[in-house]
Amino acid sequence: MENIINNNVLAALTQRAGSQITSAVKNASRKTGVDFAYLMQQASAESSFRADAKAKTSSASGLYQFIESTWMNMVEKHGDKYGIDKTASRAEILAQRNDPEKAAFMAAELAAENQSYLERRVGGDIGATELYFAHFMGASGAAGFLNAMKENPMQTAADIFPKAARANYNVFYDSKTGEARTLAGVYEFFDKKFGAGSDNATDKAPMRVSPNRGGVSYEQLLAQNPELGIKTMPRSLNEGLWQRLTSNESDKADTFFMRKKSNLFHKLAEASGINNQIEASADHMQLLLMAQLSR
Fold first, then answer.
1. What gap in Å lies between CA 116 and CA 294, rounded to an integer?
2. How far apart are CA 137 and CA 210, in angstroms?
3. DSSP letter assigned to residue 225
4. How far apart are CA 263 and CA 212, in angstroms?
5. CA gap 140, 127 in Å, rounded
6. Binned average pLDDT, 10 residues per bin, the chain of 295 residues
7. N or C, which terminus of the chain has less Cβ within 10 Å?
């Protein structure tokens, strides 16, 4: 997984986290191989680096907001490795969620497990946002969500995941308008948790798109832009979705791009080497005619 945040932002996060938590996360990263920057950004998003943080709507607690069942499962699998006494009482084991070192170890182990699971069940390039989904919804729930988004990113997320929506209103609904978010909208919500400190999230100059109103085929797109490759295409743009949207008729080709500040949008731009030259609306989600990227 790529390092998702730049050095300046990472330095700011470590300063905000404090030496104890930063040391705990570094140690977990070193022992497990999970990216330090990802673990820091996750701790920031989950608890604002508060080791004793507790959720109001679930049993989640600690630096990485483990719910009770997930923590107990992780301790059963990995507790011995990190000095957690599995013979202790349930209450004593759960209390260790507030130990930043043990929480960081378990978060790193869970991230490694989730990445492996999503690579098998979803495929493609599993990045920070996908891993955050897996921490939030569980690996199976995240795979279901991401695969549903492949099928149709404009589906209402709460209709498909009502239980998660009831427990996480501000994720599945716009807190200002009350409007239900689409699958793509929920993905964007999580993406921004990591994009806020990313190089990709800076407000760059508009990029240029050369319209091709006749549409181009999926194969033509890759042929004309070989540097994109399948892994660097936005997750919502894949061959199956392309075929369903167009009914294999290229003149009907539409595709989805996230707003300009999103990581997905800029992954496409950076992969093509034209970061400063794509023109698109900064709307939450934009439906664009498929275009040939111009130099």
1. 36
2. 39
3. -
4. 25
5. 16
6. 61 93 97 92 94 91 96 97 95 98 97 95 86 90 93 91 92 93 90 56 29 43 46 39 44 36 44 37 28 29
7. C
Kindly provide the residue ranges of all beta strands, DSSP E only, lying in 76-230, ordered along the sequence.
Answer: 209-211
Question: C-alpha 37: how far from its chain's center?
Answer: 14
* Nearest CA-CA partner of 107 in 127, 135, 143: 135
Q: What is the DSSP letter of 251?
A: G
**Would residue 46 show up in a list of annotated catalytic residues for this protein?**
yes
Q: Which residues contact residue 44 at a Cβ distance below 8 angstroms, ignoring those fewer than 6 apart?
A: 13, 16, 17
Q: Are the C-beta atoms of 215 and 252 separated by less than 8 Å?
A: yes
Q: Which residues pair with 289 in a beta bridge?
A: 254
What the block records as the tokens of 277 is: 């030259």
DSSP state of 79: G
d(CA 167, CA 158): 11
**What predicted TM-score, i.e. pTM, was given to this entire model?**
0.64
C-alpha span between 78 and 104 (Å, rounded): 12
Exactly one of 2, 46, 92, 279 is catalytic; name it. Answer: 46
**What is the C-alpha separation between 52 and 95, in angstroms, rounded?**
10
| 228, 292 contact by CB (below 8 A) | no
